[in-house]
Design goal:
- It is a single chain.
- The chain has 203 residues and is of the alpha/beta class.
- It is 32% helix and 22% strand.
- It contains seven helices and nine strands.
């Protein structure tokens, strides 16, 4: 039986924004907590992928903590470490992007069920792969490890180079807000106000 876990990439340094995105106040809570609350609706184990030097970031109750495979080297080695550690399917998500709702991720998982032959299932926007939101199966572990060993660090380039059929794509119009400016922060806060969190929906 397949077991999935969410691996939430939290090790970024927010250089473009100049501040820690994870701590931004959105809807009365830090962005990281808001993203975790949203993903909780999928009812999967959640693990935060943290920089090994990070001794400040806590985790909500019931949320695990895994340390980055190679701090500062991007998501590829950290996904590689997560696949090795979990031993089954990993739903990769970024910690700095709040989605309008989790329906898109639910659709991605449903698409994966319809593509059992695919090693990876990711979103695609205007022909561009979005590797930071994707389902990664254990079959991708060997080629991913080979790519990392050969000095390749771009996860998007890795996916582009996979054989036909190995990477299934689900086209979408957009995926949340990439936080790198004040107007986008304002947009995110508005989105957070409109979001119904799982705990609120059941009260």
């Amino acid at each position: 039986m397949t077991e999935r876990a969410i691996f939430l990439l939290c090790g970024g340094r927010s250089r473009r924004l100049g501040r820690d995105k994870r701590l931004l106040d959105v809807g009365g809570k830090p962005l990281l907590d808001a993203v975790v609350a949203q993903l909780a609706a999928l009812r999967l184990p959640i693990f935060l992928g943290l920089d090994s030097t990070d001794d400040r970031t806590g985790s909500p109750p019931g949320i695990g903590r895994w340390w980055d495979g190679a701090a500062g080297r991007g998501p590829l080695p950290n996904l590689l470490a997560a696949l090795r550690r979990w031993g089954d399917e990993i739903l990769l998500c970024p910690a700095d992007r709040l989605l309008p709702d989790v329906a898109a991720l639910a659709a991605l998982l449903a698409h994966a069920e319809q593509a059992p032959e695919a090693d990876v299932v990711v979103f695609e926007i205007d022909g561009r792969l979005e590797p930071l939101h994707g389902l990664y199966r254990q079959r991708v572990l060997a080629p991913l490890s080979e790519a990392w060993g050969a000095g390749r660090e771009s996860l998007r380039e890795f996916l582009t180079g996979l054989p036909a059929g190995a990477c299934a794509r689900l086209p979408v119009d957009a995926l949340g807000i990439d936080l790198n400016s004040r107007p986008k922060i304002a947009s995110l806060r508005q989105l957070a106000k409109e979001t119904v969190w799982p705990s609120e929906a059941t009260n």
